[in-house]
Amino acid sequence: MCPVFAGGKPERDTRSKWYLSETEWKDSVFPNYCTGWLYISTPRTANRLVKMAPTEDFLWIDDVWVTGYLAAAANIKHINLREYFTMMWEKAVMLKSAQNDEIYHNDIIASPTGRQREIAEVLTKNAERCFKAKCYNNIYKTKPADKESMAAQELLNRVLPTYLPL
């Protein structure tokens, strides 16, 4: 289980730190793979990946190699958690801070923090608050049927991209 990246292409610009030569990766796209920030696995699945590693060519981009290339070779299917993930800490703080027990919000379980301890502390504090209060969101409750909650979520979905690209 992870946020799945699909259709990723190898970087062919030699000036990039992510540059991959045709020798390192011949295909024009990567297999679907997980972000390194979040993936959840059972011990059995992890063991299958470990056993597959010595039989396959190594790729130094570990997210692509382990959760993409090795997973595909082991016939492991991803469960996409993309809706619970954002790559923008600003969006994560906004979403977590807006959570409450009355208005439905979509929640996330992971985001980067920009290596800022304060951001991590704010996210943790709000996650703990929501855990205790069982906030009205996609983690603790089912999607609402009432028009007011749905309208509030739709408004947030329209306004948020104005301030933060999704």
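Above is the first protein from milestone M3; the second protein from the same milestone is given next.
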Amino acid sequence: MGGSTVRITGQGLAADCQRLDITAGDAFVCEPVTCTDTEIMCLVNRRRRRHVIRNNATHPRYGPGYLWQPQHLTVWPGDLVTWRWAPGQVSSDQVGFSVHQTADQHSDAYDGAGFNSGDKTPQGSFTTMLEDIGTVFYSGESVGTNAVRMRGVIHVVAPPAGSGVLSVRVGSVEAESTPTDGDTPAFVPSEVCSEDPAPAACPASPAPLVLTAADCVTARVTGVSVASGDDSAGHMVEAGSELTISGAGFSETACHNRVTLGSGACQVTSAGAAVIDVAAGLKYFSSEPVVSGLSPTSGSPNGGTLLTLTGSSLLPASTDGSTAVLVGGQACQVQTNTLSTLTCLTPASAAGQAGPMPVKLVWDEDGVVRTLGNMTFTYDISKSPTLTSAQVATNAQRTLTISGTNLGSNASDIVIRLTPVSSAARRRRHVDPPRDTEVIDPDDVTEAESPAEGGAQEDAAFWSRFCDGRCANFDEFPSWTTWS
């Protein structure tokens, strides 16, 4: 991801950093920090790539100009994506183009949080930078009177590890590479800070003038906690309070880790590959939310799946803060929320629609809103619970056994509701077959009971048989039996 300092030594280098152009293959650039004729210190950053999407593809129904090219694009975090559009063969005063981020691949409406080019125009361009790993969906306003929408998908993936040869140009002249027998370290040890060896798991550089990018030396922060201070339960701390930073890829040599809170520096007191302890010099700090996991990744389109998000700082420190989760643009009902875990019940999919839906965490602390997305939850019809049979045992408790699929294994999560069925409904279910017409003598007719009386008598008879004479209706039934 960049951030490493590289020390380059040689002869005839420029003391003016602005004259230098330093690269490491196609993936990295090195921004000069200090420069002399014999030594350059530069900071490595991943080269920001630009991708262009144009409306020059042909729609199978509406023809040229009504389809983005490419429709599916893969980028790295920090890359720039530019849409460029022109009328081309689309000749109409009512035609215009725009792009905005949507909740999923089936939606055309702006999701309210992502990028948006604004009102449509017949010709123009729009650029955005994508930083979060995941999948981004986009669409736009109706292009013309035919109501066609132009959709697309962008996949943001982690950049690959690799190596690149260092190249230094002074103006238009490229410096010759003449590596010495021994590799000159970028860091010069001193009494204050010793040399920091690379982790054993990291691959060795194939040559002295080759820069190798590897995940094993990429620092990642997953959490910040107050180890000691006046307010160890929140984020208000006194100067000198101790903070513990958790993550991975930290240097085990304390002086090689630099920590700042805003513009203030923190003194690193101890360090390991996964934990750094620092003494804070500020009165206040704010942790940014980070989502590191989502489970399960699929569930029923009917909703009700308990979704678990894991990460750090998921609970805002402010009492006025709030956290919300959106699945396909719909609210996921939050059940629990801690610093490291959030659970919510998924909503039903719109119109029972199956397929992948984006998951977004909307984190609000003191009016500062962060929207973390590019996670995906798939509505899968095969995950919906189904009932195949229900049987009542002949034991004294009349135990009810229900069979089916995807009914769950935790009894506390299962709710069973019994709805009484009227005698009229039962009669509709069991209709007698038609018989030949029969002529009835008027003298044989007796006064018929009312439908209400007949239904009540039949219901009482049904429940009396079902309860062995111990209940006369549904309301009396729960008082003597147990359902399971």
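Note on the second protein: Residues 220-279 form one domain.
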